[in-house]
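Worked example 2:
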Amino acid sequence: MTDSVRSDAAGSAPSFAVVTRREKGYQRAAVDTFLGRARSAFEDEAEGISAADIRAASFPLVRGGYDIAAVDAALARVEDAFAQRERAAAVAAAGASAWVGRARTDAQVILDHLSRPEGHRFARTGPLTFGYRVDEVDHVAKRIVRFLRDGDALSAEQVRQTAFRMQRRGYREEQVDALLDATIDVLLAIR
């Protein structure tokens, strides 16, 4: 449950819905600071923040913080805006064919990686360590392949919202996350 009318310590209205004091959400000051920097960078067309930086943003979890889903949805919109601006700048600098060529090359790298046999697409964690569930990652990998190879529908938002349960000897999180990030880059490039 959220309390969207609660104001912050300074008395101003919060930027997002705030969870109850018993629930955890994103630390409000960290979110506000990051989004303020992103807004300034976007408005001034400054270099310092990219769409990938927006996607990689993380915030401490605290009781009474901002509603996680609301912040994540806003970050997705901000990432999309940065990606569109980056695409426009790249097309202006090198031309549309160079941009499309780069997206095709990136897509082929993803396809090549995902052409490995099921259960062997990524490195595994050790026997006492947890990683992403292999069957769930392989299922998402099949969806990505169908999108890239066959043109099946897949959105950046669907990839962003992908979550996996954990298992011993699962796939290494950092490798799977890197491939999902690359997939989002391709999706945003072809919009």
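Residues 5 and 13 are 7 Å apart (CA to CA). The chain has a mean pLDDT of 90.
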